[in-house]
Design brief:
GO biological process, one term: mRNA splicing, via spliceosome
Number of strands: 8
Helix content: 25-40%
Strand content: 15-25%
Radius of gyration: 23 Å
Protein name: Splicing factor YJU2
Organism: Hirundo rustica rustica
Shape: elongated
C-alpha cells in the first residue's frame, strides 16, 4: 500500500468505465458494506512501472455513502483484486474452500505417486460408484 500519491497517479488518461465490485468489502471511513456485484462508475488506469500484459493495473471507485475513494489493484497473474486502500475485504468462504480442495487434490496425487497400492484403491472406489443415467436392476 503506497502512501505516495504520485506512485499511484495514472500515467496517461484514466478511463471511465462501469465496474462491479469484485467481492464484499467494507469502507474504512464510514463502515458501509459494499456487496459483490454492486455497480460503480470507475476510473481505470495504470500505476507507474506496474503493468502486466498491458492491462490496467488499478481501479478507483467511490463509497456509495461517504464518497471516499476505494482503490483496487488488478492482479491477473493470481486472478485476484487486492484492495490497495479505502476499504477492507470481507471474509470469502468460497475462496478458502477452493484452496482447500486444491490442497487435498495435491496431497492425493503425491500419495498416489509414493504408494502404488493407493492408486489401485482409488480405482476400485471409482469403479464402485454408480454411473449417472444407468439403471440398476
Amino acid at each position: 500500500m503506497s502512501r505516495d500519491p504520485e506512485a499511484r497517479a495514472p500515467q496517461g488518461p484514466a478511463v471511465r468505465a462501469e465496474a462491479r465490485g469484485p467481492f464484499n468489502t467494507r469502507c474504512k471511513t464510514c463502515r458501509e458494506h459494499i456487496y459483490k456485484g454492486k455497480q460503480f462508475n470507475a476510473h481505470k488506469g495504470t500505476v507507474q512501472n506496474e503493468v502486466y500484459l498491458g492491462l490496467p493495473i488499478f481501479c478507483v471507485i467511490k463509497c456509495t455513502r461517504c464518497l471516499a475513494e476505494i482503490t483496487f489493484k488488478s492482479d491477473p497473474k493470481n486472478t485476484d483484486y487486492p484492495v490497495e486502500h479505502g476499504a477492507t475485504r470481507n471474509f470469502q468462504a468460497e475462496k478458502l474452500l477452493e484452496e482447500e480442495e486444491k490442497r487435498l487434490q495435491k496431497e492425493r496425487e503425491e500419495e498416489e505417486l509414493n504408494n502404488p497400492m493407493k492408486v489401485l484403491e482409488n480405482l476400485q472406489e471409482l469403479k464402485a460408484q454408480p454411473v449417472p443415467g444407468q439403471r440398476g436392476f
